[in-house]
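Morning. Coffee machine broken again, so started the prediction first thing and wrote up yesterday's gels while waiting. Chain of 506 residues, entered below exactly as on the submission form.
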Amino acid sequence: MLWSALWIEALRARPGLAVRTAGGALGLLWVVLPLLVFASPPLELTQYLLAARAGRVAADAGGPLAAGLSWLALDGLGLWAVYALFALAMLASAGLAYRLASRFLGRAMGGAAALVFVAVEGIGLPLDPYAPDRLALPAVLWVVLESWRLIGERKSHAWPALAAAGGIALFAGWSGWAVVLAAALLIALTPAGRAALRTRDIVQPVAMGLTFLIPFALWTVRFPPPLPALGTAGAAAGGSSMVPAATLLAGLVLASVPGALLVLISSRAGERGGGDRAREDVPTLARGPMPDFAPVFMAVMGIVPLLAALALAALGERQTVWGTPAPALLAVLLVAGRGQMAGIHRRRAMAPLWLACVAAPAVVTALVTLGAPQVGRRGQAVNFPARAVAGPLTEAATRRLGHPPGAIGGVTALAAPIALASSARPVLMPQAGPAQASATVNHLAAHEGMVLVWPVLSANGGPPYGLRELWPDLQPQAPIVVPWAIAGRLDPVRVGWAVVPPRAPK
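Came back before lunch.
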C-alpha cells in the first residue's frame, strides 16, 4: 500500500533511478538556462574554451580531460554541447555519489545522501556553474568508489577498475592528482591496503597503469604544472594570499547549509506533540552499521583533496571545491548522523525545500539576468551581444586582411566573447600582449593578422594607449554600434576595433 510520499517510495524501491533523475534534472536546468537567457557564455567559461582551442592545457582547471572534452564539444557540435557536457557530468557524478553512499549506508539511505549531494551541488552552481573541475568530478568520485572496494571491502579484483580510474584522474588536473594521492596514502598506510598490494590481481593494473603513465609523463613535460611562489598573489594584490582559500571554504560551507537543513528538518528536532500515533505514521529508512574503517576512509578522501585545493588557492591558483569528493562525502556524513533508523518527519516540507535548493538558484540567476538591464546602467557579460558584433566585425576584418583573422585581442571582456562567436574561430590574444600568449596564438597573429577590440568610452573612439604601445601598426576602423541583447535602459554597445596586419608571410 502506498501510504507515504512518492519520493519516499522511490527511495525505497528505486533509489538509483531517483538519484539519477534528480542529477539529470539539475544538469538539464543549467543547459536550458543559458540557452534561453544568456546571449554570451559567462566570461570565465568563454576564456577557458578559447584557451582549450589554442592548446593551453595545464594541470589547473580540470586538466586535459576537461579541456579536451570541452574543445571537442565546442568545435564539433557548438556551444550547446558544452552545456550538455556539464549536464552529463552532473548526471554521472550523482550516479557515482549514490553508488558510493549506498556502500556505506545501504540503498535507501544512500539514495537520500545522494539527493542531499545534488541539493548541495544545486546551491553551489551559481558560485561557479561551469567550472572545468565539475567535468573532472566523475573521474574523482570513481577513484573514491574503487578505492573503497579495494581497501574497505577488501576486494582485490577491484584493482583493474582502480587503475583505470586513477589513470583517467591523472589527466583531470589538480583535483585528480589529489584524490590519487589520497588513495595512495590509504593503500600504503593501512593494513588492508598493504594486503591488496600482495595479491596476484595487482599484475594487470600495473600494466594498465603504465599505459596511462607514459602519455601522462609526455603531457607534464609539454605543459609543466604552474608552481606559483607562496604569497605572490596576495602581495601583488596588496592583501592576504589566504583570502581565495577562505572564500572557497566559505562557499562550500554556505552550499552545505541547505543540505544540513534538509537532514535537520527530516528529524524530530523541534517537533511538538503528536504522541504515539504520530510517531507510528512516520516513514522510516533503515541501514546497517557503518563499517569501522569508513570514518577514516572518508576523512582522508575528503580532507586531502580539499586541503590541496585550499593550498593551491592560497598560492594563487584558481581553484574550486566542486572537483573534490568533499561535497559527496559531506552528504554521506550528514545522513549517517541520523542513525540506523531514520524517520522522515515533516515530509510535506521536504520535497519543496529540496526543489528550492535545486531550482531556486537557476530561477534567481534568470531573473537577475533579465531584470538587471531594466534597473541598472551597466551591462552584464552574459548580456553582451557577441554574435551581433562578431558577424560584421569578422566580415569587415576579412576584407581588410584578405583572409579571416587568426586572433582577436584587446580588452578581454570584449575580445573573448567576440572570438568565441566569430565564424572564423580565431584564438584569443591575452590583454597583456604577446608575452603572455602561447606559441600557437603568437604564430596565428603573426601569420594571419589580428583584430583588436576595445569599448568606446569617449567621443574620439580611438584605441587605448596601452594597445597602441603594444601594437604600433594597428589600423583603427569605424566603431560597431549594436544594442544589448536585452536592451532595457542600457545605452547601445560601442565597440572600437582595429586590424593588425600579418608580420610574417603565410
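Strands lie at 284-286, 341-343, 407-410, 427-428, 450-455, 475-476, 480-482, 493-500. Going to sketch it on the whiteboard this afternoon.
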